[in-house]
Structure formats: structure tokens, C-alpha cells
């Protein structure tokens, strides 16, 4: 029996990297019976007679997993936003951040197309950058003329498994192509009529860049909070999580409860009002969602 990591899934086959080889494998029927599917990023045990005829026998414990895109054992998420076309949205960024934080994945924020902004837009985004850095996030501003950010991104990639996430049309695949010109990943032009890009990625694959692995995926195709409970939401806002222990009531939702340290910090300007407003919006979304059966 051998061990390796799944680096690609396509048409029912799993490509397992073991040492210097990549073995084409199928999953055993036992996984279907248990309703467990191997995911790209999984560490597995397998048997193989040849490089094209292997069978996955066991999936090792995962530290995290995403449903869409289907990938496991991620270290960090590179969240790509654009300054314009589509316009920068703190609501969308915070939604991505909550999803990433809920999976214990470290986020890196990259804001592209800064050269296309007006002076007012540039100043606003620079202020947001300062604010998110104060929370503890890494934020980089990039020009559309040099979208790859090699000097910023490469040091973060080494030894890590990264997933790239972001709204359509912000330049995720273009960034990956610029990071490694040998990838030649397919990109489509932004649809002017829709103001957004077209999904071009059809499968999940881990690609070796700068001594790390990046998953080229369509990003998060689902941005809801189906797996998150109301009491867990503030854990995904680091600035609120740090204060939760100081609230009067255990399990405080930081909404209508008295003696709330988070609300006090908002009033004093120590927590950004847009972050708290987004928190309340997400909280309502979780509390009013319909159960899935």
C-alpha cells in the first residue's frame, strides 16, 4: 500500500502524487456506500499495479474541506477583488472572509485594477486596506498592468496549499497565468453586457507554483452560510472574536443583548461600522434560512 495526495480529479479519475510519480486512480465502491467522496487535496492510501491502474483504499483525516469548489486540506485562500469593473465591494469581501475563516483557512486579500480608479476611489480603497490590515489581514493593491503580484505572492505560496477565490471578472485566472507563464490556463474576456467574467475552469487541480500548490478552481460558487450557526458567526470576525469573552452573557450574539463588549467597541469606533453592519446582515441570513433536508 502506498500513500500520496490527490492533485487532480477529472471524469471519475483521481490523480495521486506519490513521490515523483502521479498515479491515475479510481475510488473503491466502499466510499460510495459511506457517502464519502475523495477530494483534491486529500491524503490517501492506494494500491497500483501500473501508473494508470490504481485504487484509492483509504482517505486520511482532513483538517478542512470546501464543498464548492470540492477541495480539502487548504492552508490559505487568496481572495481577489477588483477596485473597479466590477466595483470593489466590502460586503462581498466580508462574505468571502467569513466563509474562509469558518474553515480555519488563512485569507490573503489582493485588490486588482488600482490603476483604473479615480482619485476618490483610490483613496477610499487605500483607507479600506488600512482598516483590514488593522484587523490583522494581509492586503495588497495591484495594477492591471502588472496583475500577477509575484513579488508579493510568491513568498506566501511556498509550502502552502492555496485556493483562489473571488467574484467573476476580477482576474483570478489571469493572475495564475502571470504567476507561471507555462500554465496557459484558459481565460475569457469580460462580458461588457453583463459586466462580469465567464467561468472558464472546468475541474479542480493543484498546480505547483513557487514551491507551493494552488488550486485553479472557479472560486466559491456558493456564498451562503448553510454550514455556519448563528453563535459561530462572530468567531469569523477576528476583531469581534477577540472581544467576545468580555461580553456579559456567554453565547452573546452582539445584537440586542446588554453588556456587549462588541457593541461597545463599535460605538467607540474600535470596530468598523461596515463590518458590524455586515455581521448583522449575515446573522439575520443565518437565523432566517430554511433548513435543508
From TrEMBL:
<keyword id="KW-0547">Nucleotide-binding</keyword>
<feature type="domain" description="CP-type G">
    <location>
        <begin position="63"/>
        <end position="223"/>
    </location>
</feature>
<dbReference type="Pfam" id="PF16745">
    <property type="entry name" value="RsgA_N"/>
</dbReference>
<feature type="domain" description="EngC GTPase">
    <location>
        <begin position="72"/>
        <end position="221"/>
    </location>
</feature>
<keyword id="KW-0342">GTP-binding</keyword>
<dbReference type="InterPro" id="IPR010914">
    <property type="entry name" value="RsgA_GTPase_dom"/>
</dbReference>
<dbReference type="InterPro" id="IPR004881">
    <property type="entry name" value="Ribosome_biogen_GTPase_RsgA"/>
</dbReference>
<feature type="binding site">
    <location>
        <position position="247"/>
    </location>
    <ligand>
        <name>Zn(2+)</name>
    </ligand>
</feature>
<dbReference type="InterPro" id="IPR030378">
    <property type="entry name" value="G_CP_dom"/>
</dbReference>
<comment type="similarity">
    <text>Belongs to the TRAFAC class YlqF/YawG GTPase family. RsgA subfamily.</text>
</comment>
<keyword id="KW-0694">RNA-binding</keyword>
<dbReference type="Pfam" id="PF03193">
    <property type="entry name" value="RsgA_GTPase"/>
</dbReference>
<protein>
    <recommendedName>
        <fullName>Small ribosomal subunit biogenesis GTPase RsgA</fullName>
        <ecNumber>3.6.1.-</ecNumber>
    </recommendedName>
</protein>
<feature type="binding site">
    <location>
        <position position="254"/>
    </location>
    <ligand>
        <name>Zn(2+)</name>
    </ligand>
</feature>
<comment type="subunit">
    <text>Monomer. Associates with 30S ribosomal subunit, binds 16S rRNA.</text>
</comment>
<feature type="binding site">
    <location>
        <position position="260"/>
    </location>
    <ligand>
        <name>Zn(2+)</name>
    </ligand>
</feature>
<dbReference type="InterPro" id="IPR031944">
    <property type="entry name" value="RsgA_N"/>
</dbReference>
<keyword id="KW-0963">Cytoplasm</keyword>
<keyword id="KW-0479">Metal-binding</keyword>
<keyword id="KW-0378">Hydrolase</keyword>
<comment type="function">
    <text>One of several proteins that assist in the late maturation steps of the functional core of the 30S ribosomal subunit. Helps release RbfA from mature subunits. May play a role in the assembly of ribosomal proteins into the subunit. Circularly permuted GTPase that catalyzes slow GTP hydrolysis, GTPase activity is stimulated by the 30S ribosomal subunit.</text>
</comment>
<dbReference type="InterPro" id="IPR012340">
    <property type="entry name" value="NA-bd_OB-fold"/>
</dbReference>
<keyword id="KW-0699">rRNA-binding</keyword>
<keyword id="KW-0862">Zinc</keyword>
<dbReference type="InterPro" id="IPR027417">
    <property type="entry name" value="P-loop_NTPase"/>
</dbReference>
<feature type="binding site">
    <location>
        <begin position="112"/>
        <end position="115"/>
    </location>
    <ligand>
        <name>GTP</name>
    </ligand>
</feature>
<feature type="binding site">
    <location>
        <position position="252"/>
    </location>
    <ligand>
        <name>Zn(2+)</name>
    </ligand>
</feature>
<feature type="binding site">
    <location>
        <begin position="166"/>
        <end position="174"/>
    </location>
    <ligand>
        <name>GTP</name>
    </ligand>
</feature>
<keyword id="KW-0690">Ribosome biogenesis</keyword>
Amino acid at each position: 500500500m502506498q500513500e500520496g495526495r490527490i492533485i487532480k480529479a477529472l471524469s471519475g479519475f483521481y490523480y495521486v502524487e506519490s513521490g515523483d510519480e502521479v498515479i491515475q486512480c479510481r475510488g473503491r465502491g466502499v466510499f460510495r456506500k459511506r457517502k464519502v467522496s475523495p477530494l483534491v487535496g486529500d491524503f490517501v492510501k492506494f494500491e497500483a499495479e501500473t501508473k494508470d491502474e490504481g485504487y484509492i483504499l483509504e482517505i486520511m483525516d482532513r483538517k478542512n474541506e470546501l464543498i464548492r469548489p470540492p477541495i480539502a486540506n487548504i492552508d490559505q485562500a487568496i481572495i481577489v477583488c477588483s477596485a473597479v469593473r466590477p466595483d470593489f465591494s466590502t460586503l462581498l469581501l466580508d462574505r468571502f472572509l467569513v466563509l474562509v475563516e469558518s474553515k480555519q483557512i488563512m485569507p490573503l486579500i489582493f485588490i486588482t485594477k488600482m490603476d483604473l480608479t479615480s482619485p476618490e476611489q483610490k483613496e477610499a480603497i487605500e483607507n479600506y486596506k488600512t482598516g483590514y490590515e488593522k484587523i490583522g489581514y494581509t492586503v495588497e493593491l495591484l495594477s492591471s498592468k502588472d496583475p500577477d503580484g509575484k513579488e508579493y505572492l510568491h513568498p506566501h505560496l511556498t509550502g502552502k496549499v492555496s485556493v483562489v477565490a473571488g467574484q467573476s471578472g476580477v482576474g483570478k485566472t489571469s493572475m495564475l497565468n502571470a504567476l507561471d507563464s507555462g500554465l496557459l490556463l484558459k481565460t475569457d474576456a469580460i462580458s461588457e453586457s453583463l459586466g462580469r467574467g465567464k467561468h472558464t475552469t472546468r475541474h479542480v487541480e493543484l498546480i505547483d507554483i513557487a514551491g507551493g500548490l494552488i488550486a485553479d478552481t472557479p472560486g466559491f460558487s456558493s456564498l451562503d452560510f448553510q454550514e455556519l450557526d448563528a453563535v459561530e458567526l462572530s468567531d469569523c470576525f477576528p476583531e469581534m472574536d477577540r472581544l467576545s469573552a468580555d461580553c456579559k452573557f456567554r453565547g452573546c450574539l452582539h445584537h440586542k443583548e446588554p453588556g456587549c463588549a462588541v457593541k461597545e467597541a463599535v460605538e467607540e469606533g474600535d470596530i468598523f461600522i461596515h463590518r458590524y453592519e455586515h455581521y448583522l446582515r449575515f446573522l439575520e441570513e443565518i437565523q432566517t434560512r430554511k433548513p435543508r433536508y
